[in-house]
Amino acid sequence: MLNTKDSTRNMILAILSDGQQRSVRKILSQLQAVYGKKVTYQAVHKIIGQLCREGVLSRFGKEYQINKGWLTGLCSFVCKIGSSEGIPKVENTANVLRFKNIMEADNFMIKLEKEFAHTTMKKGKICIQYRHSWWPLVYAKGDYIVDIKSAPNKLYGLCRGDTPTDKWCADFYRKIGMKVKTGVDLSSSNSVFGDITVEVFVPPSISKQIDKIFKSVKDPADFDTYSFIQNILKKKVDIYAIVIKSKTISERVRERVLERFGEV
């Protein structure tokens, strides 16, 4: 499980993931308003200072922004995975990938899921944590369903949302062999594939829109998939994913998920 310092750091990156410049006080305000995070100005200032020293953030007077130069420093894994059909070996410890919208990030994650679910190199359990579930509504057709059904490596999913649509999607996943729980208190959206952990950051403003949409739909049959794709998934906004190659981190995240299913 992430400690307080690490989770605050990730929240700060999520807040700045829309590419806008913000002051420490504005970031603190969003930490409290969006995430309900109880943290002092001094603590936030210290973490931001560390991120600047690491080259993750750039300073513009009293405001800060994610350093675009840092984002271009991707390892060969991140570059290849976005353009090739295979999953290459990861040599570096951590890197960041930037997507132009949520749909592009979704396709990247689906590709990872399909490839790792069928790897014959080493059997393992793929664990996914997410805020809401829309993949069955948008992408569940053709070989995606067949691939997951026949996968030797099983999938486990924890969904923070517990709306009628989230529950419908969970039932869909269960029918194709995935174990799922909804209404789970989650602090992040990440997935574990072997020794690789991927955490995706969606801007808080977009997350709030998605929350509003899911809460407003009482019957999954009334979910406006076309509108959701056009206005949310294809909306032009920077989406960042942190890719970490670490056996220790992946094992801890996987264990935390499997505990929910009584399989630890």
What would you say this structure looks like, in words?
The protein is 46% helix and 17% strand. The protein has 12 helices and 10 strands. The chain has 264 residues and is α+β, with helices and mostly antiparallel strands. The longest helix has 16 residues. It folds into 2 domains: 67 residues, Arc Repressor Mutant, subunit A (Orthogonal Bundle); 187 residues, Endonuclease, Chain A, CATH 3.30.870.10. A 7-stranded mixed sheet has the order 4-10-9-8-5-6-7, sandwiched between helices. It has a 3-stranded antiparallel sheet with strand order 1-3-2. It starts with a helix and ends in a 5-residue tail after the last helix. The chain is globular. Strand 8 and strand 9 form a beta hairpin.
